[in-house]
Structure formats: structure tokens, C-alpha cells
Design brief:
Structural class: alpha/beta
Distance between the termini: 23 Å
Helix content: 25-40%
Number of helices: 18
Radius of gyration: 22 Å
Oligomer: single chain
Strand content: 5-15%
Shape: globular
Largest sheet: 7 strands, mixed
Number of strands: 15
């Protein structure tokens, strides 16, 4: 059966009501008009959203691949991170001008119309190049499976971490015999730690950076602690909201207390404060190169299990196959080979703070020597992720709608209990809404692995 087409209006509406003036410049990226490299037989066009340190690490891995595979000409293009990237990728796939290989956040895959805008991976080709389901954390692998087919091949997980200054915590008596932060297993333990750290920290600094005004970070923190409480989102059929407003209120009150007890300076630059001597900051693992580059005496652990269960927010950069009407042949195999190579050679990627998804990397002597990466690698087994629905994922509708609500509670403009109730009501609206990409609700969209 043929695939029903998507109109330009559908796609632009489905990316979240964006203003996308000038976003149709994807044509040059996907035209394939440029000549093959001199020794190459096959071209693989690859779109990604990596800039800064991540971009440099990705380029290093691509250069290694090019050196070892001169028969494959990799044409990589870096596009703007966030919704502009997804807009261009959707337009290219709908217009049959898609690259052979792309990158997506794993949480966005369920909403990207798998089977229409994304093609499934060929498991035999992946196995040919050394990548198997058994080489992955099962939960992570299954997040990329829609209707029984793999649509996303994870490269990493990137997680929210609790960074701590060892020099400050040592003065406060908060390091264990191995020189790492003492264990925290309750909210009482956590606020006791903050109280002790505050007594020895430099004056004029906050005790912890929490990104109190940032809807994305506040949302990520909420997801982590709500998961620690065993909170649910929807039933398996995606027909009923199971969100627990009481548990949500506990999390919101916990976040709010950091402000009311004076441990946070709202709006303060979290990274700068940490570099200048603040005892703690909660940041993504992508800050590792920044803090290591500043030559700090620091460590990093997953967000503390203050509600008893280990869980820290996690997302994943994943390789995808944007839909091509004539996908197959040498270019498709080249895309599989390139993705498998990068996944298997992700130690360079780990240097940027990300945890490699291909688990054999984690047991290598080289990875075990990385600090502080070796301190938080356990996060792979304790991932707190958004629900698998079309409106979730990085910069998705769910974060855009509920993130500001969390901020309002943390900052004190709304009561935690009221916000918890509002969140549940909004989840009901989202569950009943249709994905503009394909006109299906979450219950109809094949979200279950």
C-alpha cells in the first residue's frame, strides 16, 4: 500500500506552531548535486544538530570514519538545534529530498510519523556492521521501537546531574572515604547536606544552581523526581490519564523549598556561580567539558534519590532514517554502516559528557578512566524519561505546556497543589489531541513498543 502524503501546511502545524520563515533552505543540503569525493563510490548525506563541543567531537568521529572508509563520501550538514531542525527534516522527508541519515532526540520519534517521515532500520544490516539489540540497555532500545520496528538507533543518553565542588564539601564533611559526595536517600538528607554546605561556602554565592527560571530544566527536574516517586502518566493504551497530582505536589514543594529556604538565588548564572565556588549545581552532562576545562576540583552524580528510588532525567541522541521513496541500495547500506561505526566508536563522544548507548563501550578501560563520567555511568540503568507519546520529547509540546507551570510553582507565583491539578488537566487535553503530522491521538499512534 502507498503512503499517504503530508502537505506543507500539516508539517508546519505539526512542529508546534513555529514561525519558520527562511526554513526552506534545506534544498541545497539534500540536493546531492555536489561531486563525490575522489575515491568514493557512495555518498551518504547526514544531517545533525550538533554544535560547540558536541559538533567538534562528531566531526572527529566522522573524520575517522572517512579515513577508514574512503569508498563512502560523507556529506554532513549541521542545522540549528531545536524545532527549526525538526521542521527542515520533516519538510525534506515529505518532499522526498531527505538525507540518507539524520539525528533526532529519542523522545520525539513517536511524534514524527514513523512509517511516513521515518523509515525503519534494517536489523540485518545493523548486525552486519556489529550492532545488535543485545548491545543496548533494553529500556533504551525499546524506546526507539514503534509498531514492532526500530525507528531510532540510540547514540547516547544525556542526563541531568548533581555537580558538586569537592573542595567545598570536604570543608563541610560531606565527602566519603573515596572522596565522593556522601549518599543521600531522602529529602531530609538532602536539605541537611545543603545546610552544611551553606555554612562553609563563599559569601555572595548561592548554595545550588537550579535554573529556576528555565522551563526546560525545571521540567526535566520534575520528570526525574516524579519518576522517583513512582508516578505514572497514562495507561498502556494511552486512553486514560494516570498522573498523580498529589505526587506532583510533593515534587513541586520540594523544588520550591530550595528558594524559600534561601539555597537558590533566582536568576543567578548557575554555571558561573559553580565555577566561582558555589557548592552545587544541577546541569546536564554536557557541562562536563566546561567544568573540566575550568580545572575545578569537582564530581558529578545522577540527581540524588531524595524520594527513595534512583531516577534521573534522561534523553537520547539517536540516528534515524528520514523517509526516502527509493530508500535502498548502496546509499542506504552506507547510512547503516556510518551509524553503526559512530555508535561503536563513541568514546570520543563520551568525552563530551554523554553516556554511550552501545554498552560494550562502557566496559572498556578507556571509558572507566574518564572522570567524572565513571561516577554517573549508573544513570544508564535509572533513566527517568517522558511518556512515549507524540507530544513528548526535547522541546516538544509537553515540555512547552507543563514546563512553565513548574517554573511558576518553583518561583512562587502559583501554589504547588494548584499547579499539580493544572498539570493533570492539561495532560488530559493533550491525550485527547491529535498529532498534526498524521491526525492520530496518542492512543492511535503506535506508541507502545
Amino acid at each position: 500500500m502507498g503512503r499517504p502524503g503530508l502537505s506543507r501546511r500539516q508539517i508546519l502545524g505539526g512542529i508546534g506552531g513555529l514561525t519558520v520563515a527562511g526554513s526552506f533552505g534545506f534544498a541545497a543540503l539534500g540536493s546531492g548535486a555536489d561531486a563525490l569525493a575522489s575515491d568514493a563510490d557512495t555518498r551518504v548525506r547526514y544531517w545533525n544538530l550538533f554544535s560547540g563541543g558536541d559538533g567538534a567531537n562528531m566531526i572527529a568521529m566522522l573524520d575517522s570514519f572517512r579515513k577508514e572508509h574512503p569508498d563512502i563520501d560523507v556529506k554532513d550538514s549541521t542545522l540549528q538545534w531545536g524545532n527549526p531542525f525538526y521542521t527542515k527534516l520533516a519538510m525534506a522527508a515529505a518532499g522526498n529530498r531527505a538525507p540518507e541519515l539524520g539525528v533526532m532526540h529519542l523522545g520525539r520519534v513517536a511524534g514524527f510519523s514513523p512509517g511516513r517521515l521515518l523509515d525503519p532500520w534494517d536489523m540485518n544490516l545493523l548486525a552486519k556492521y556489529g550492532v545488535r539489540k543485545e548491545d543496548y540497555n533494553p529500556e533504551l532500545w525499546n524506546r526507539g521501537v514503534i509498531d514492532g520496528k526500530l525507528y531510532a538507533l540510540p547514540l547516547d543518553i544525556h542526563v541531568q546531574l548533581c555537580y558538586y565542588r569537592k573542595d567545598v564539601l570536604k570543608k563541610a564533611g560531606l565527602l566519603d572515604a573515596d572522596g565522593r559526595m556522601i549518599e543521600v536517600t531522602s529529602t531530609g538528607d538532602w536539605f541537611d547536606v545543603l545546610k552544611k554546605a551553606k555554612k562553609v561556602q563563599k559569601k555572595g554565592l548561592q548554595t545550588i544552581g537550579l535554573w529556576t527560571n528555565d522551563q526546560n530544566f525545571q521540567w526535566w527536574f520534575f520528570v526525574a523526581f516524579y519518576t522517583q516517586l513512582g508516578g505514572e502518566w497514562f495507561n498502556d493504551e494511552r486512553t486514560e490519564v494516570l498522573f498523580d497530582a498529589d505526587k506532583a505536589t510533593q515534587v513541586l514543594e520540594f523544588l520550591r523549598r530550595h528558594v524559600t529556604d534561601g539555597y537558590v538565588i533566582p536568576g543567578a548564572p548557575t554555571g558561573e556561580q559553580f565555577i566561582n565556588g558555589a557548592p552545587f549545581t544541577w546541569e546536564g552532562n554536557w557541562s562536563v567539558p566546561v567544568f573540566s576545562g575550568a580545572e575545578l576540583d569537582y564530581g558529578a552524580i545522577p540527581l540524588p534519590p531524595v524520594f527513595g528510588k534512583k531516577a534521573t532525567h534522561a534523553e537520547s541522541h539517536s540516528f534515524v532514517l528520514p523517509h526516502q521513496g527509493n530508500r535502498g541500495g548502496a546509499t542506504n547500506e552506507g547510512a547503516h554502516e556510518l551509524a553503526a561505526y559512530v555508535v561503536k566508536h563513541a568514546l570520543q563522544w563520551a568525552a563530551g559528557g554523554h553516556i554511550p548507548a552501545y554498552t560494550p563501550n562502557l566496559s572498556t578501560p578507556a571509558y572507566k578512566k574518564l572522570t567524572p563520567q565513571n561516577e554517573y555511568v549508573s544513570a544508564m540503568d535509572h533513566q527517568a524519561t517522558e511518556p512515549k507519546v507524540w507530544f513528548a520529547g526535547s522541546t516538544g509540546v509537553l515540555a512547552q505546556d507543563l514546563g512553565p507551570m513548574v517554573v511558576s510553582s518553583t518561583m512562587g507565583s502559583a501554589k504547588p497543589a494548584a499547579v499539580g491539578a493544572r498539570m493533570k488537566k492539561e495532560l488530559g487535553k493533550l491525550l485527547a489531541s491529535k498529532n498534526p503530522m498524521d491526525g492520530k491521538t496518542a492512543a492511535q499512534g503506535g506508541a507502545v513498543a
